[in-house]
Amino acid sequence: MLRRTSALLLFAAACSAEVFFKETFDKTWTDRWTQSAEKSDYGEFQHTGDALKTSQDAKFYAMSAPAPKPFANKDKPMVVSFQLKDAQGIDCGGGYVKVLTGEHDPKEFNGESPYWMMFGPDICGSSTKRVHAIFTDKTGKNLLTKKTI
Predict the structure, then answer these.
(1) CA distances from 107 to 52, 94, 104 (A)
(2) The pairing of beta strand 97-100 with beta strand 92-94
(3) How far apart are alpha carbons 144 and 131 in whole angstroms?
(4) CB atoms within 10 A of CB 125
(5) Whole-angstrom Cα distance, residue 50 to residue 77?
């Protein structure tokens, strides 16, 4: 029995991870997220109880939330994940998450805001259905992942 317990403890230790940011979009989500005011015609998100949805077709949406504390993952893997459901049959569109670099004004957050990583699905017509993963190097150059994700 001791061997089995030790093995389970080792397995549990190997699977443990520190969570730096987690969002469940509970009823207090607006306390953490700021809608960008960079453009006057950004669409507004609607809360559905445990998720957000876009409220208008053919609109851009932008909002951000700070990580609760600074973090680093040097010499450790980092996992960034989100769920997106395309509830309508869109012809062209996408949904992206950006992990930003350093400080930013959430009211000025937009598509050109500098980021460390951006990823998410992109659909355009019947031929383009992929997940983009783009990293920004120290020089500011965007590096699109060539692998199919």
Answers:
(1) 19, 22, 9
(2) unpaired
(3) 11
(4) 8
(5) 28
Residue 52: beta bridge partners? 47
Identify the burial level of 34 via C-beta atoms within 10 angstroms of its C-beta, where 0-12 means exposed, 13-18 middle and 19 or more buried.
middle
> pTM for the whole thing?
0.76
Q: For residues 16 and 27, give the distance between their C-alpha atoms in angstroms, rounded to a whole number.
A: 28
User: Over the stretch 62-109, which tens digit does the pLDDT of each residue have?
Assistant: 999 988 888 888 888 888 888 887 776 667 888 889 988 778 899 999
Q: Are 65 and 100 in contact (CB under 8 A)?
A: no
Res 36: pLDDT: 94
Torsion, Cα 39 110 144 138, to 10 degrees, reads 140
d(CA 79, CA 125): 30
Ranges assigned E (strand) in the chain: 34-35, 45-47, 52-54, 63-64, 92-94, 97-100, 115-124, 128-136, 142-144
